[in-house]
Design a protein that fits this description.
Blueprint (H helix, E strand, L loop, with lengths): L3 E3 L1 H12 L3 E4 L6 H10 L6 E4 L3 H13 L4 E5 L1 H16 L4 E7 L16 H6 L8 E3 L4 H18 L2 E7 H4 L3 E3 L61 H16 L8 E4 L6 E5 L3 H12 L6 E6 L1 E3 L3 H8 L4 E6 L6 H7 L4 E6 L8 H9 L6
Helix pairs in contact: 1-2, 1-6, 3-4, 9-12
Length: 377
Amino acid sequence: MSNIFIDGNEACGAGAIAAGCNFFAGYPITPATSIYNYMLNALPSEGGVCLQGEDEIASIGYCIGASMTGKKTMTATSGPGISLYSENISFAIGSEIPLVIVDVQRLGPSTGSATKGADGDVNFIRYCNTGGIPVYALAPADVRDCYLLTINAFNIAEKLRCPVFILSNKEIALTKKSVNLNSVKLPQILDRVLCTPNDHFLPFATDYDDTAPPFLPIGSETLVRQTSSTHGINGYITIDSKEIFDINVRLQKKVENSLDEFLFYDELLKPDSDTLIITYGISSSSAIEASHMAEKTESNISVLTLKTLWPVCEDLIREKAQDFKNILVIEMNQGQYVNEIKRVLPEKNVQFLGRMNGTLIKPSEILEVLTNENSYK
């Protein structure tokens, strides 16, 4: 198959189909609406279901209900919709319900600017659930990533039984590129582990303290309990402090201990370079171009593009940054992930370049920061 002309939203839809998604629900919102349009055209022919909810709250609720029956589900929205999703995100985390959520970020705060891009939801995604349980969030840097990372997002959701975020961006989502999707090396498609029905089924019991419980769909012959309240391994509401502690620790461990398996990044490391740019999303394109431009002045600038944002890949960041004197973090916001980099690299000279006004950071601006001794020291 030759290259096709496709944008990031369409690639997310194609990735979802390739991963086995068979249920989508969403509510129109710029710049995520074309994901819904794609799924509306693609899912019925695959035997799946695509619904438009009456609002964002209903849409994620439909997805959660469908996932409880065993469907592979996805929804898509932007920042204002994530705000409305938050209660059900907590429900999906606490009750271990697989779900992929595409957040095509736009300029905030509040409803912001629907046609301007930003990366302003990075911290909100991490902390939008009550309890602060860790989440998985993947950040595509281009159209190809939208396809591949969506597939991986479904694998994570199915294996860990949790919601997984795709942190896209208006610029990536709505910019068409020529891509050969057939040339993309795909991971093995994962499905959630099923439990053999039995009279003693415990819906949240596991053999280890860092794994998801085996799954039985609601509606089967075996009674399956689900609740958004604090519960024990039997699914009943509990006030037993030890049981509550054990489950919450397991919810944390199953995410954090899976980082090595689902760690995604790109690197452009130059010899004799003392500066490393750490970035993600659309800003990585500018960083890579700045690195190439710097070669003309005989300067070497290296780039680390993070694609797994949450949980923080601390070991990777330390490993890649160890030989560099200066670290420049670039984000399309006023400084969110840079605080994680400073936490992980307290001994390094970490500087920041970012903005949140709807315009992209240019390669020339990156070079200006790197060559201005007054702004970078």
